[in-house]
Amino acid sequence: RVAGGIAVTNRLDDTVTLLDEEGDVLATIPIGEPIPDDTFQVGRRAFFDASYCFQRHFSCTSCHPEGHTDGLTYDFDIDGVGRNVVLNRSLLGMEGTAPFKWTGINPSLQRQCGARFAMVLTRAAVMPPETLDAMAAWLESLPPPRPLVDADGEHAELVARGKAIFERSRRKDGKRLRPSQRCITCHPPPHYTNRQRTDVGSYAPGDPVRAFDVSHLKGIGQKAPYLHDGRATTLEAIFRDAGLGDRHGYVSDLDDDDLRALVAFLRSL
């Protein structure tokens, strides 16, 4: 509040608007260099724009703050209540990781955020194609979250040990692991996903499919919870408490120290 009125920050324009006591605009003041109205800015503005939603109740950022995730699971009524309960995935670091959706049926962000999204979620008209393209370009420009562990810092030895476990082709007793039992088979660099659908034993009653999109692991330490229905609240829980056995990588021979190293590596990505 300022003398005789109020000042409002306009986050997407980097300006401050001064209003008088009646609510009339006195001035709009830039607080930095003008933001170019390029493709990325058009897409960013659309992501925050509630006008594409029925009665302007929410925008994309409502469930994906700053492109990340609210960490919640959702049950959309289009396929029946109690069916296909899915975790809201982070949108950070998505470039090069198509297809999208947990079932991997959408080959592009335009398909993911287009007509079906409008019908199921926003209950409004579809974004114009050029706006949808701009938003997809902006989303693909978002970097993954910062790693929680510095691979070259004080935990470098632990991370290196975890990397060796992640990339191993043999069990601790020397027996060869089948490709389907190796972490790196489904999660190869640089994005740590093979971009395929895989059945890792996470199927639950009400799921329409048994095979789910392999998540990319860049910034995975800051993308909890995990698995398609969010049942694993931590990375450790994926291997110990999610009821997957050795379907999600062979982990029966890993002790607590091994698991600590593996998780440290994952948090370094």
Offer a quick outline of the entry.
The chain is an alpha+beta fold. It is built from 9 helices and 7 strands. The strands form 3 sheets. The chain has a 3-stranded antiparallel sheet, with no helix packed on it. The protein has a two-stranded antiparallel ribbon with strand order 4-5.
Radius of gyration: 22 Å
In one word, what is the shape? globular
Largest sheet: 3 strands, antiparallel
Poorly predicted parts = none
N-to-C terminal Cα separation, in Å? 44 Å
Write the layout of secondary structure elements.
Layout: E1 5-10, E2 15-20, E3 25-30, H1 39-47, H2 60-63, E4 73-74, E5 86-87, H3 109-112, H4 115-122, H5 129-140, H6 156-167, H7 183-186, E6 197-198, E7 212-213, H8 235-240, H9 256-267
Antiparallel strand pairs: 1-2, 2-3, 4-5, 6-7
Overview of this protein structure:
- With 269 residues, the chain is α+β, with helices and mostly antiparallel strands.
- Helices cover 26% and strands 10% of the residues.
- The chain has helices spanning 39-47, 60-63, 109-112, 115-122, 129-140, 156-167, 183-186, 235-240, 256-267, and strands spanning 5-10, 15-20, 25-30, 73-74, 86-87, 197-198, 212-213.
- A hairpin with a 4-residue loop joins strand 1 and strand 2 (15-20).
- It is globular and about 75 Å long.
- The two termini are 44 Å apart.
- The mean pLDDT is 93.
